[in-house]
Amino acid sequence: MSIVKEVESIFPAETSIPQNALSGLPVEQDKYLIRGELRHWRGRVQEVFSQVCVKTSSGTSPKRLGIHPLLTEKESTEALNAAVEAYNNGRGLWPTMSVSDRIKHMEDFVCQMVEVKAEVVNLLMWEIGKSYEDSNKEFDRTVQYIRDTISALKDLDRVSSRFVIEQGIIGQIRRAPLGVVLCMGPFNYPLNETFTTLIPALIMGNTVVFKPPKHGVLLYSYLLEAFRDSFPQGVVNTIYGKGREVLPPLMASGKIDVLAFIGTGEAANQLRKQHPKLHRLRCILGLEAKNPGIILPDADLELAVKECILGCLSFNGQRCTALKILFVHSKIVDAFLGRFAEAIEGLRFGMPWEENVFITPLPEPGKTQYLTELMQDAFGFGAKVINDKGGTVNESFFYPAVLYPVSDKMRIYHEEQFGPLIPVLAFEDIETPIQYVIESNYGQQLSVFGSDPDVIARLIDPMVNQVCRVNINSQCQRGPDTFPFTGRKGSAEGTLSVSDALRVFSIRTLVAAKEVDINKKIITGIVRGRKSNFLSTDFVF
Description:
The chain is of the alpha/beta class. It is built from 20 helices and 25 strands. It has 2 domains: 216 residues, Aldehyde Dehydrogenase, Chain A, domain 1, CATH 3.40.605.10; 196 residues, Aldehyde Dehydrogenase, Chain A, domain 2 (3-Layer(aba) Sandwich), CATH 3.40.309.
């Protein structure tokens, strides 16, 4: 069957979908969590549809998944007030709790989370079109991230448990929470990337107001009870609804101490500027990227093609860490494009529950139209699609397309496409890709493919001052989660890794006293009597 015919017939009738993939659907989500209470919502609701379409007697249409509440400013403010009260200016139960006790609460949460894995994974698959295999990986990686965070906090606590004496001053330095955190994650990793801010914010003693992503919202219905049962009341509060309605009152109140947001720079700027005390607002942001791949003339073509396929098209290219533009040396560009197009033809595409599927429907309504517009714009300036039937569309499905030759006159050269559309440029002078990186508003990562250590070394030294990770003969990626994850310029604020995240959601604080007898006696009495959770030599094994 031709690619066009396969794309035309990609969406199944509902009767042919495996029953295990339909398990639990629809999800009529009518609850939200405030102040330790799961409240039932009786107001307006948002119907949720999957862009994984199904064939019906009236044609192909998105699959209905359920509903979630459309809360108002009133409920949003109640959630904020609950978090503010739970923090209580740092006097609340959670921020003053010992590290060991906060870890126990987090361990309880993980145990409850694992119990609903099947339900969460199934909704990941339906809500964002991620393959069942990758949805499983996202869940497992998230659980491992929480466990690694707990281990990292134990290590940090051991280091902090000792006293230091400098210039006649006794001191103990630990990390203290920052306050109330507004936490929002992205649709492409609605569980994992959301938790890479939510989990460290919580475990460091902050209280949280949490809004699930627009796509990937229903999966949290299975985690609400775990949040309620695992943490003291008011520590975790959820809000649902349209961002333009429920978020402005939170920021305008001035009561948000930390904005933890992964999404677009435009949205982050809109949120930040609504805060009346900008100098008091700490921002941890993961924003856009336009990561380039640079394929040098001596690159191992087989390896470069393999890694660029993964880098450009894993989860349909819907990753901030995806390779979004390729610079290929003119000596090998024809050979590279031939192999690259052949590799794309070998990728399996279909429904997310199918085994070994690689390319799936896109979750954002209107996304295929946007990608088609980028293609048409590029055609007007001389680019062509070089892989067979690239850019073929059926509803929410877009068959990967490789555009060549691309120039700076085209939108695709500048815009982050966030999808399976791959622009390729040929270059002769290495200054061409270097200048692209320098002039870009983004500075997350790049990949370089080649064999000459001298050439690669000359690229590394200037490029690490433009991006925050240079990958040698490998795709751009976030992991391992113990590595720093951040960006320069317009790509990020703050560093997220297992250990770095603990630091960005806390601040170094110390208790100090002159080394005189009365102070020694006071400190000894506090420590031996275990009278303080902060001033203590206890640590967690």
